[in-house]
Each structure stands twice: as C-alpha cells, then as structure tokens.
Design a protein that fits this description.
The protein has 18 helices and 24 strands. The chain is an alpha/beta fold and 609 residues long. Bound molecules: fructose -6-phosphate.
C-alpha cells in the first residue's frame, strides 16, 4: 500500500508533491510526508494523520526547492506515527527514500547495518533502504542504489533523493506500481496516473526490475544490471475530471452513479449488433482451446472475490465448465489442483492486489492458462496474465468498490457466453436474449438510480441498528455477500450474508424482534423457497426489506418494505440488484457520519500480503 510522488523541474516541488499525494490518498492515509532539496540540503516534513495535517504544516513552512519526493502511508511495519512516516533518511541526512511494499529481509539487513554503527529512528522496513544507500555510497549515487537493489528481497516501488546529486531522482519497482510522467523541462514520478494527469498525459510505466534516473530534462530507464531499456510512451486518455468528485459529495456515490456509463463502456464493441455473439478481439481462443479447459479456478479478494462467486454460476450454468472460486490469500497455501487443463481467471479492479498477483503467478507456475479481468491498463496483473479483459469502469477512487464490481460481473458473463458459443452449451436464442438484456442494462441501472428516496428512508430508519442480515438463494446469495460487505466496510454495521436455506442450521437463532433482514428474491427458479425463508424470519419478528423484480406482487405480502428492480434476465439480475444494496450502504454510512470514501483501517489498493 502507500502512494509515492516525485518532482524535478523549474517549479516549486512541494506544490506538486501535495497535489499528487491528494490524488493518491486512496492508496493509504495514516500519515504522509515530503522531502524537498532547498539548494543546499534536503528538508523533510512529515506527520501522522490525514494528508491535510501535513498540508497545513507545509503551508506554514513553505519549503522552497525544485526537486522533492513524497509519500502517503498505510502502515505495514510499525504503527502510524511521525517517526514511521516516510520519507526516511540515513544517519547523515544525505539520502532520503520513500517506499511502497515490503522489504522481506529487512530485519537481517537492519542487524547488519546496526552492527556497522547505523542508528535507526523508526520501526519500518523502509528505513533500511536509506541506510543501505549511505553504506554503499562511494561518490556515485546511481551505483549505490543499484547495490541496494541487489541487497533487498521483497516487493517495492522506491524513490531516492540525495544531497550529493540533487539534479536527479532515482527510482525502481518490483511488484508495486510506478509511473513516470514526462513533462516539458520537468518530470514526475508517481504510484499511479491520477497523481500526474493534471500535469502531463505522457508516461512511462515501469516494469518489474526496472530502475529510472529522472532529471528535469531526461529519463533513463535500465534494468537492475544497468542495461538500458527502451520504453514506449504511454499516453493517458482519461479525462482529468474523471478522477475528481465532479459535484458529488463522495467518490463512492459518484461511482455508484457512473455505473450506467461503466456498463455501457464495458460492453461497447463486445456485443454483436445482431445480438448473436460476444466479440472479444483481445482474446485468441479457438474451439479446441476452449474444449481443452477441464476446470476454471477463479481467484480474487474482497468484492472481486464476490464477483467471482457470481462468475461461478455464469460459467458453470452457461458454459458447463466446472469452476472453483478461491480467496487469493488462501489459494497459494492449499496446494491447489491446477494444471495445464485449468484456466485461472483472476479478477482485480486495481490489478495490483498482491495476493491476487501472487495467486496468478502460482497458477502460471502450475501450468494453468491465465486470464485477468481488471480495470487498470498496464497494471501488474494485466501484464502478468496470458490474456486480459479490461473492464471499462474508469478510475475507482472510493475504497468501497461499486462500479468495478458491476463491470466485473459483466466481464464474467461475457466470458461465459463467449465460451458457451464455442462449446454449444446454449441455444442461440438464449445467447441472443441475454445479449439483448445486456444492451438494456445501462438504462435499467439508470432507472434504479433515479428513484432512491425509499432507500434513503430505510438507511435513516435502520442505519443505527447493530446487526443486519442479508439472505438469498443461488445468484441472490452471491449478491447478498457483496451487499453485506458494502454495509460493513463503510458504515461499520455488523452485517452477515447467508444462503437463505441455511438459516435454520444455526443463524436463525440470531433473528430477534426488529432485526433488519434484507431478502433478495430475484431468481424465479428458487423464488418459492426464498419466500419460505422470508416467512421464517418474519415469524421471528424480523423487519424484512425484500428485493424483487417489478411486477412481483407476491413478495409484498410477506415483507415490510420492497425495492423492485427492472425486469431482466436471471443472469443480469445480480448486476441490477446490487445497486440498491450499494446505495443502502452508502446512505447508512452517511447517516452515521462515517468517512465514506476512506473507511477506517482500509485502503484502496492492498499491495501487501
Ligand atoms: C471492497 C473492496 C475490496 C477489493 C479488494 C480487491 O469494497 O474494494 O474488497 O475488492 O481489496 O481489490 P482489487 O479488485 O483491486 O484486487
């Protein structure tokens, strides 16, 4: 986790550093710091707490200088504190470093450095980098950093600055993102593109093992051995506005409202005009390739994992391929039965989640073919996978994932239909009906978003309850899991999702008078059974909010309140049904005064194990 920025050029560095860090706060926000070279020495300012604490400090001090680096932190080694905030310095104060990732052998390195007389002032793994460069420095900054890279094991994006050679920034990356923004007489370094798009749209995206020497007029990229690497300029086409809140109170609600657009863009060019097929120009599968897949294993974390559970229903029911779904952090440690007849599908909004990336590497090692579904072009996961499908959700800034989830479902559904066509497991008319439904989704999602008053009222009414339960069967159960995660993570209400038929095996004991139960009943094939489960909780005096499809008069007889989504195909219902749950979570969090976009203890991109 953590966000990194760097600037070198004619302007005041501190100004860009703070501006860039603000755009990266979603990567971590328990402390922040900057280091600026003032013409004779490097001055470091850092403080625990949100970025605005540092910003105030910097406003008062107004550090002058044209080269600097900055960092916003999400603690891994060492609690959030001033001392543990980055940048970190060596003993002499001649070298500073910011780092994102984990130096796995830091304890061993630290002991060796202490034995040589180095004095440490923080509990972080990062500080060893500053002392190492000091240790290796013999008049050549670049050579010293190369030696540091040879010493360390782990994952990192790191940026160094030195009093000895203040005309350059040196950076390198392994398993964590780093981009270089190419300006005119100035250059930028950042963990992620939103930090620099207001300044430049031309970038180099560094690959693992690369190191860059950045001056105001040049950028030299090389591998760890010092062999030059020629980089292609990656032009960013995002609208700068797209990374801003654009009039909404929070990024999360803005992103919820962006779903019709995100769905439209994710399906754009991929649905045949005559509804007959899915077009994936980026996938190079043949009938034989698809026939050779014996098993699909889906691996992801959090919300993306919940998308994977929906994907299991899609791929098994439509393409008739057996599917396992794993939480990425468990996958590697259970000796998974994966071989060259397995397709591993990894799902990740950021494309940087370390557990998912590691699972992808493991699946590849075991011989699987790999397919990534991700939202970030050029991300680590996108680069590691054999094939990639990009969701076109645009930047997702709020920690709680919304538009990424719905577009992940669409990606998975399109893959299932694409495979089904090769395998002949679905009649043509069925494929056409689902594709027609997909084309209607943006306007149907819009319709839900146009009418949110009832949801706001429920959020106010039940937003202070201690516990909330979500129930559903089949695809509704998969959506219930995501609904409960959304509520938990941003409103801090204890929420649980259960397969509705499973309640009586234990959980029913928790249902007492007044407990809100959100019951999803969009799936006709299990509808009657879901109604029976609704009656079970009503008999224990729960307050039930039923989520069904328009025209469902039956459900109204058994629940206290209803939310009806537009009529759609059973496979498309999860994509619409989750929207009221996202809204409910959002308005509950607002009712409780929670920090919606930055829930406590969480960060957007989890690049540590
Ligand atoms: C929850 C949420 C997380 C992410 C998870 C994986 O709202 O956003 O659970 O889904 O951390 O992140 P990505 O998709 O970037 O791999």
């Amino acid at each position: 986790m953590c966000g990194i920025v760097g600037y070198i050029g004619p302007k005041q560095a501190a100004q860009f550093l703070i501006e860039g860090l603000k755009k990266l706060e979603y990567r971590g926000y328990d402390s922040a710091g900057i280091a600026v070279y003032d013409g004779s020495k490097i001055n470091v300012e850092k403080s625990v707490g949100r970025l605005n604490v540092l910003e105030k400090k910097v406003e008062q001090i107004a550090p002058k200088g044209h080269v600097g680096i900055g960092h916003t932190r999400w603690a891994t080694h060492g609690r959030p504190s001033d001392a543990n905030s980055h940048p970190h310095t060596d003993c002499s104060g001649n070298f500073v470093v910011v780092h994102n990732g984990i130096i796995e052998n830091y304890l061993h390195l630290k002991e060796k450095l202490i034995a040589k007389g180095h004095v440490f002032t923080s509990e972080t793994d990062t500080e060893v980098l500053a002392h190492l460069v000091e240790e290796h420095y013999q008049g050549d900054f670049e050579a010293a950093v190369k030696k540091v890279l040879a010493d360390v094991e782990g994952s990192y994006a790191m940026v160094f600055l030195s009093n000895y050679e203040p005309d350059k920034i040196i950076c390198s990356k392994q398993d964590n993102p780093l981009v270089i923004g190419l300006g005119d007489g100035e250059n930028f370094v950042a963990s992620d593109i939103p930090a620099i798009i207001n300044r430049t749209r031309k970038t180099y995206i560094l690959s693992d093992g690369e190191m860059a020497i950045v001056t105001k007029d040049s950028v030299w990229v090389m591998n760890r051995q010092g062999v030059p690497v020629s980089k292609k300029v990656f032009e960013v086409h995002w609208d700068a506005e797209a990374a801003e809140k654009g009039g909404y109170e929070h990024f999360m609600i803005k992103e919820i409202y962006e779903q019709p657009k995100a769905i439209r863009e994710t399906t754009a060019g991929r649905l045949a005009k005559d509804d007959s097929s899915i077009i994936f120009d980026e996938l190079k599968w043949t009938k034989d390739d698809v026939a050779a897949i014996r098993k699909i294993t889906i691996v992801a974390c959090g919300t993306a994992y919940h998308a994977g559970i929906v994907g299991k229903y899609y791929l098994e029911q439509l393409a008739r391929i057996p599917v396992e779904v794993d939480v990425a952090s468990e996958f590697r440690y259970r000796s998974p039965l994966v071989d060259d007849k397995t397709l591993a599908i990894v799902i990740s909004q950021s494309g940087e989640t370390l557990d998912t990336l590691a699972a992808l590497k493991e699946a590849k090692k075991l011989g699987a073919r790999t397919l990534a579904i991700t939202n970030v072009v050029g991300s680590s996961i996108a680069r590691e996978a054999d094939q990639v499908i990009y969701t076109q959700a645009g930047p997702e800034i709020a920690v709680a994932s919304t538009k990424a989830y719905t577009t992940q479902l669409i990606g998975l559904l399109m893959v299932a239909l694409y495979f089904a066509a090769f395998k002949g497991t679905l009649p043509e008319e069925r494929i056409q009906a689902i594709i027609r439904g997909l084309k209607q989704l943006p306007s149907q999602a819009h319709e839900i978003l146009e009418d949110v008053e009832a949801i706001k009222t429920f959020a106010k009414e039940y937003g202070f309850n201690e516990d909330v339960f979500f129930i559903g069967r089949s695809l509704d159960y998969a959506v219930a899991l995501e609904g409960s995660l959304k509520l938990k993570e941003i409103s801090y209400i204890h929420a649980e999702a259960y397969a509705a038929g499973e309640l009586k095996h234990g959980t029913l004991a928790l249902i007492i008078e007044g407990v809100p139960v959100i019951a999803l009943a969009t799936q006709r094939d299990v509808y009657e059974k879901t109604l029976s489960n609704i009656k079970e909780v009503k008999a224990r005096d729960a307050v039930v909010i039923g989520i069904g499809m328009q025209g469902d008069e039956e459900i109204k007889k058994y629940v206290d309140h209803t939310i009806l989504i537009p009529v759609t195909d059973k496979y498309l219902a999860p994509i619409l049904a989750v929207i009221p749950l996202q809204l409910l979570a959002y308005y509950a969090a607002v009712t409780r005064g929670a920090d919606v976009d930055k829930p406590r203890n969480l960060a957007k991109s989890v690049t540590v194990e």
